[in-house]
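look at this stuff:

>
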Amino acid sequence: MLNLFQIADVGGATIDDACGGLTPIVKIIKNGVFPIVQIGIPILLIVFGTIDLGKAVISSDDKEVKQAQSRLIKRCIYAVAIFFITTLVSIIMSLVATGADSDETNTSGWAQCWNSIQ
């Protein structure tokens, strides 16, 4: 059975390349997308929540301040949840790779590819 790495192999990759031609895509995901999701989005959520709370405090409306506080708390909870998404995905995928590895489906190739990217 062909896996994704065999299908996407364009012939330019060496035998030692665990990603089989997908190295640029994996680098973009691992070094670009994951840090933005893990760090950037939580920071933005907290900053926007703080700005909303500041606007509510300046307006001096007690009802609006309470709503802004609850929104800030929810955004902080969402920020913590988003921060741990990448860790959870990595753990789940490694469990799936070790649990589903058999003669028919070789799932350890993606794990070697992911771990070889710096």
In short: The first helix runs from residue 4 to 7. The chain has five helices and no strands. Residues 35 and 86 are 9 Å apart (CA to CA).
